[in-house]
Amino acid sequence: MNADELKVRQAPLKDQYRHEPDRARWTLNASGTIDVAKQTCRIETGHGRVLAGLHPATGGSGNDACSGDMLLESLAACAGVTLSAVATATAIPVRTARVTVEGDLDFRGTLGVDKTAPVGFSAIRLRFAVDSDADEAALATLLKLTERYCVIFQTLRQPSQLTAVVERIQGIAP
Predict the structure, then answer these.
(1) What's the gap between Cα 40 and its chain centre?
(2) How far lies 15's CA from each of 5, 21, 22, 29, 54, in Å?
């Protein structure tokens, strides 16, 4: 897709969202079925099932997806798609690119071994390797705009309001 094709696809959406801001607000969702005995959660996605389980550092087998890895994969996917859209829209030439995300965890926190150890990532690093003839200023713009428009990056940078509840129910079909 080139810049003109991208603009043609996005123009009617941008116009609609300018004139009808409420149409731009969507609620995305995810759900899963929890298997308490196996410490897994089967997530139904629009692209198949994912079985998430404990990371090997917390007693998991390593056969199931780790939610921490999935968070980093989500950032990699969002940032990669955003970088490609920004490169296209701004005509910054990128022949190929690779995105890498690393996150540091201290599993003492999530296992309750050390109450002072954080639960969650203490640092996340996002890195792009790009094959491009663009100058340094253009690549800096590419990174700045990718950071600005990447939903997952911005959500992690400025966390949204997060709530959790538990409801009592009578059985769930597997």
Answers:
(1) 21
(2) 16, 10, 13, 25, 45
Amino acid identity of residue 142, one-letter, is: L
Does residue 44 register a pLDDT over 70? yes
CA 71, distance to chain mean position in Å, is: 6
pLDDT at 128 over 90: yes
Q: How confident is the model at residue 46 (pLDDT cuts 50, 70, 90)?
A: confident
Angle at CA 139, nearest 5°, toward 18 and 74? 65
What b-and-e string marks burial along 121-135, b requiring 16 or more CB atoms within 10 Å of the CB? eeeeebebebeeebe
- d(CA 53, CA 61) in angstroms, rounded, equals 8
Percent of the chain having pLDDT more than 90? Answer: 83
Quote the DSSP letter at residue 170.
Answer: S
